[in-house]
Design goal:
Number of strands: 19
Helix content: 40-55%
Largest sheet: 5 strands, antiparallel
Radius of gyration: 34 Å
Distance between the termini: 23 Å
Structural class: alpha+beta
Length: 754
């Protein structure tokens, strides 16, 4: 008769294999989630939490009897509940911070979501501790479920579906976690799948195979990561289309998050979002708060202060800034027939005025910065036909492909004040003249009320302090338009410094008050949003086309790499200079430099940097920028380049099936060739029992021979052993021949029975 399966004995090999798989899955899932959404937390305490909880639940679910396991859970779960009750204030703070991070990341790709911020005011260290504690609690809950799936139920698919859904939110946004935790997770899945097939017949052997498979799979994935040409990887069109359909299906789920309790609305949305929105709501310009999140990662061979522009807005409404209406661009960018700008992009005009200056690459990775734009420096050399993974939107900004977060563009760090200005000629001059008229028509308007407010303010302060008129340009060798601009900047800076104060605690403008008048004559304090709004209208009043720009201000260190934090978000003014193009001007006291209207002072190339060949209009263009980053640290891997790990993991699983079959066959041959006929007969009988569910037959006389080999003191004769082995081999061959192809593959490679 058929023997029942003996109870599982937890050998050291089984305990070690279960513990390693549990720990790998737990760490891989948790840190994949953290790295995908750039959640800031203390790493080592989380690793300790994963290790401790994995050991605890490994012990609990490895107890030999079910009642012992239930008794242990009966003690452990109330203790966990008590800990949650005592730590609830900290856990709730951590949950708020994590949810804000998730919602704000989704808000970058779903326009119906608004950025949210915690209402509670805590120091950065307190937020980190709260988030770490909350993630540790999540790790404990996940360890409980995985411990039950891996150690007790021993279900491969249950463990997979407990960990894979954690990746789904990130994959919906084409965000791939950091490669190391992702490899851990994939290695854990492969380790669960392959040894589980062997464990059906020999659980200790399956555990030993797991101990071999886990490091082997991880090493294989690491080798493939290093060997394959990731930098050339781009998602196929079908994958992008499938993702778009998935986003359409899942997009409405995000509406649940907006306005969820415990969160404030978009208090600082238009400032902290920097270039993320074309519309700027000045009514929300209240006290500033930052949480230290990394918004961009920048790599450049040019050192010094750098302004990265995002969106530009040209229409002032009195309470905010809006982009130009679509109709305004019709005669310039959407005209039928010939291109009025002759193929030139207005954002490229400044780089054409110094043809002898070398250009340099800069790589900008969007980490948490919202809005879907590429943050670019001034004097941009990269033209529309050279940029990949992004496209120019009129004369305003560079919109990035949603699936690509890292772009490399080329620019010239030399500024207008460096004396490298060369007037445009030929078609470039003709295109600039056409666009100059467009800029004067669309970026010069100012209402009479705003004009009177500014004139009244200027009249008051100049009468109170006549010495302000003593300002003189510092450099008389500059071209006349630039010299005039420098004089105005120095004069306006002197006026502002004598009457206003920079303050990040500036209160909101009262609803009944005018934003500009309240800033100049009532509060007399503000930050970049206030100064950028005032200076844009001020230059318009003096006849310069000007527009409001938002982005980030940073400083490239000697290492050439910098993480741009949320506190670096900034706003300034772009002034259009005839024959040159848009030129940045920053009158914010802490950012502007006396006598220098440019926010990008002279930058010094790195000593080891190779100067690229110069580019002039009509000559060879710079190398085509790559939308993928250069090789760098773990956190700088382009998410879209790591999606190939998932199909590779599946291929690794498939490639392991022939190995599974070969190992099972070798094991059978060794057992059937045992020098002890009785042991060989018992092994053959057990093999025959495994064939019964597939249609095998076990005659009574073979069962009697097996019982004789197992319980009798007699040794089977060679003829009796040959009878058993011959029958077993015949049955296996007949079953394999009769099975349909899908079941035959499972019979051979899945279970390794032939």
């Amino acid at each position: 008769m058929k023997k029942s399966r003996p109870p599982l004995r937890r050998t050291p090999a089984i305990l070690l294999a279960d513990g390693l798989v549990l720990l790998v899955l737990l760490c891989g899932a948790l840190f994949s989630f953290i790295s995908a959404f750039q959640i800031e937390a203390h790493t080592y305490p989380l690793l300790a939490a994963c290790l401790i909880t994995a050991l605890v639940f490994l012990t609990v679910f490895s107890l030999p009897r079910g009642r012992h396991c239930l008794a242990a859970l009966g003690v452990l779960l109330p203790l966990c509940g008590l800990a949650v009750w005592r730590l609830w204030p900290y856990l709730s703070l951590g949950e708020v911070s994590v949810r804000c991070t998730l919602v704000n990341r989704f808000a970058q790709d779903f326009s119906f979501l608004e950025t949210i911020y915690p209402l509670a005011v805590r120091s950065r260290q307190e937020w980190l501790q709260a988030v770490t504690l909350y993630l540790g609690a999540l790790a404990a809950a996940l360890a409980f479920l995985l411990g039950w799936a891996v150690c007790r139920v021993r279900s491969v698919w249950l463990a997979f579906w407990l960990t894979f859904p954690i990746l789904i939110p990130a994959l919906c946004l084409t965000i791939t976690p950091a490669w190391f935790p992702l490899i851990l997770l994939i290695a854990g899945w492969c380790t669960l799948l392959l040894p589980s097939l062997a464990a059906r017949q020999d659980r200790t052997g399956g555990a030993k195979l797991a101990l071999i498979t886990l490091p082997a799979t991880g090493l294989l994935l690491l080798i493939l990561t290093a060997a394959l040409p990731q930098a050339q990887y781009q998602q196929p069109r079908w994958a992008v289309d499938a993702l778009d359909r998935l986003l359409l299906w899942s997009g409405d789920l995000g509406a649940w998050f907006s306005g969820a309790g415990g969160f404030a609305g978009p208090k600082l949305l238009d400032f902290t979002a920097a270039g993320g929105s074309q519309s700027v709501d000045l009514s929300n310009a209240g006290p500033l708060h930052f949480n230290g999140r990394t918004m961009l990662r920048v790599q450049s061979e040019v050192r010094g202060k750098l302004y990265l522009r995002g969106h530009a807005a040209g229409t002032y409404t009195g309470s905010g800034w809006e982009p130009l209406a679509e109709d305004a661009y019709l005669p310039l960018f959407q005209a039928e027939g010939d291109d009025p700008l002759l193929g030139y992009q207005p954002l490229n005009f400044p780089s054409l005025t110094n043809p002898g200056s070398p250009y340099h690459p800069i790589t900008v990775e969007v980490v948490n910065a919202p809005g879907g734009c590429v943050y670019t420096p001034y004097q941009l050399v990269t033209t529309p036909e050279q940029v990949r993974g992004a496209q120019f939107v009129y004369d305003s900004y560079l919109a990035r492909d949603r699936s690509i977060q890292t772009h490399t563009v080329y620019y010239k760090p030399d500024g207008l004040l460096d004396g490298t200005f060369t007037p445009l000629t030929g078609q470039a001059a003709q295109a600039e003249q056409i666009y100059r008229n467009f800029a004067r028509q669309n970026y010069s308007s100012i209402s009479e009320a705003d004009r009177e407010t500014i004139l009244g303010w200027l009249y008051r302060i100049t009468h109170e302090n006549p010495a302000l008129f003593a300002v003189e340009p510092e450099d008389s060798n500059l071209p006349q338009p630039v010299r005039d601009l420098v004089f105005l900047v120095q004069f306006f800076q002197a006026c502002l410094s004598s009457t206003t104060t920079y303050s990040q605690d500036t209160p909101r403008t009262p609803e009944e008050a005018d934003f500009l008048d309240y800033f100049l004559n009532e509060s007399k304090q503000g930050y970049c949003m206030h100064y950028a709004t005032f200076s844009t209208l001020l230059f318009r009043m003096f006849g310069y086309p000007a527009r409001y720009v938002s982005g980030y201000m940073t400083d490239i260190p000697t290492s050439g790499r910098v993480d741009v934090l949320d506190s670096a978000a900034h706003a300034w003014t772009e002034v259009y200079l005839d024959g040159y193009g848009w030129y940045p001007v920053d009158l914010t006291p802490i950012a502007g430099e006396s006598g220098n209207p440019s926010p990008t002072p002279e930058a010094t190339p790195a000593p080891s940097a190779q100067v690229a060949p110069t580019s002039t209009p009509g000559t060879s263009a710079p190398p085509t920028p790559s939308p993928t980053p250069q090789a760098g640290g773990l956190g700088q891997v382009d998410p879209s380049r790591l999606l190939w790990l998932i199909p590779l993991a599946l291929l690794a699983c498939i490639a392991g099936l022939p190995l599974r079959r070969a190992l099972a066959r070798r094991r059978r041959i060794r057992q059937f060739s045992n020098t002890d006929p009785n042991r060989a007969a018992i092994a053959a009988y057990q093999y025959l029992q495994a064939l019964l569910p597939w249609g095998g037959v076990c005659p009574d006389h073979l069962q009697e021979l097996a019982q004789k080999a197992a319980f009798s003191q007699h040794t089977l004769t060679p003829e009796e052993l040959d009878a058993i082995l011959s029958w077993v081999h015949t049955q296996a061959a007949e079953i394999d021949a009769k099975l349909p192809p899908p079941r035959r593959l499972l019979f051979r490679y899945g279970y390794g029975l032939y």
